[in-house]
């Protein structure tokens, strides 16, 4: 016999696996683009662009559904249990990306509400926080795409920096609200927007942890600092 | 040949499938219990009970990891693609439950911060919102456990009621903050706690939608009202 059917199947399985990783990374890039667009509309106070971002979120949701079905179809014809981790990562990472897309969309949506009030000085801090979050997502996707466990660990460690910036902004906003009660409504939106960005950082960390899991199985990760201490500590 | 190895495998596959559904429902009940305990500690202002709830969240996270691996192991020995939906639901529902557990734990955590301030009258409204959310999760789990598509639809529709109560509480809190700037810090915690409960309702809806998907595949669900309009509408 000269044909090697088994090898052929294995090869196309690997190709399909690779195609799926690429599709997941593309899905992630769409989510990051949505986030960056959301940060822009906050700056530009552009309601109609914000509505477009909110509408675009459907395509991320659709991608997650499509990818999870493709991953499962692949799993069901897969050679064996050694692919378990690959499959689980292929389901969990799109789910994190889908949530990142939701948060980006919510930032855009709240920017519309924010535009009903005069411009706020804290938008700059929000933007800095958002760009940090976008960078974390990009790095996590790169770690996934390139099987880079060290980069994954770095993403996980850098989340503490994002949390510190979030906590600082949170406290600044509270102080501002106390000084000027008229700022309470817009500041509340900014609080939720900041929280969304902090959550995006957590999902970037989840992606990074899934990359670690993919590469090293259940080998435990070192313990890490708590993520958001605004829920236990009051403002300065 | 008298032995029927294939039938035997199919039967134990179904049994294992059933065992997993039960384990997922148990995981869900733990999350609801955590939520109810979190609502209680808000009322009782009991910091040490709150810390216990936060610590318990680890067991929900561990259950999700264990279940998702069991679901995948089952998938990999599964008869065929007809089980695709079952498997996907078996991965997605625990992921929603895991998030519900996180939100419950965060409500407990914020109650500790809240206890640094004098008691707030809005705690009653928060509790009502939380009990509604807990009811929604219970119903969604029952729909999953009993393959009840009508109950799943009802859960999805009832989410609008939870959103209305959330929006009312949100506006009440904003008004209160404007009237008394000293209430801003505790009210901010209450805002986030209320938001957590509203998100729990969304995850109950996700579970209900996964039950629909499990029973009817991609047959579309009727469109539904938006979930949270505090991000577009200011307070009354």
Automatic annotation (TrEMBL), chains A, B:
Pfam families: PhoU. It is found in: Cytoplasm. Signal peptide: none annotated. Residues 24-110, 128-211 form the PhoU domain. Its main location: cytoplasm. Transmembrane segments: none annotated. InterPro entries: PhoU (IPR028366), PhoU-like_sf (IPR038078), PhoU_dom (IPR026022). Keywords: Cytoplasm, Phosphate transport, Transport. One of its GO terms (biological process) is intracellular phosphate ion homeostasis. It comes from the Bacteria. GO terms for cellular component: cytoplasm. Gene3D superfamilies: Phosphate transport system protein phou homolog 2, domain 2. The keyword Cytoplasm applies. Belongs to the PhoU family. Homodimer. This is Phosphate-specific transport system accessory protein PhoU. It comes from Pseudoxanthomonas broegbernensis.
């Amino acid at each position: 016999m000269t044909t090697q059917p088994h090898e052929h199947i294995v090869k196309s399985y690997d190709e399909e696996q690779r195609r799926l990783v690429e599709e997941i990374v593309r899905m992630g890039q769409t989510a990051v683009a949505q986030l960056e667009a959301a940060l822009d509309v906050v700056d530009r106070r552009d309601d109609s662009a914000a509505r477009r971002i909110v509408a675009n979120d459907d395509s991320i949701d659709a991608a997650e559904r499509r990818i999870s079905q493709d991953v499962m179809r692949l799993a069901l014809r897969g050679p064996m249990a050694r692919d378990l981790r690959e499959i689980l990562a292929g389901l969990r990472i799109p789910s994190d990306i889908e949530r990142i897309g939701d948060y980006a969309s919510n930032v855009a949506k709240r920017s519309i509400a924010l535009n009903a009030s005069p411009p706020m000085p804290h938008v700059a801090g929000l933007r800095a926080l958002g760009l940090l979050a976008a960078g974390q997502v990009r790095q996590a996707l790169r770690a996934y795409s390139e099987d880079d466990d060290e980069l994954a660990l770095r993403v996980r460690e850098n989340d503490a920096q994002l949390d510190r910036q979030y906590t600082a902004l949170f406290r600044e906003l509270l102080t501002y609200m106390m000084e000027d009660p008229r700022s309470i409504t817009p500041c509340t939106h900014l609080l939720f927007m900041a929280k969304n960005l902090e959550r995006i950082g957590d999902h970037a960390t989840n992606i990074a942890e899934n990359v670690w899991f993919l590469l090293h199985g259940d080998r435990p990760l070192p313990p890490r600092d708590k993520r958001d201490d605004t829920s236990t500590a009051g403002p300065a």
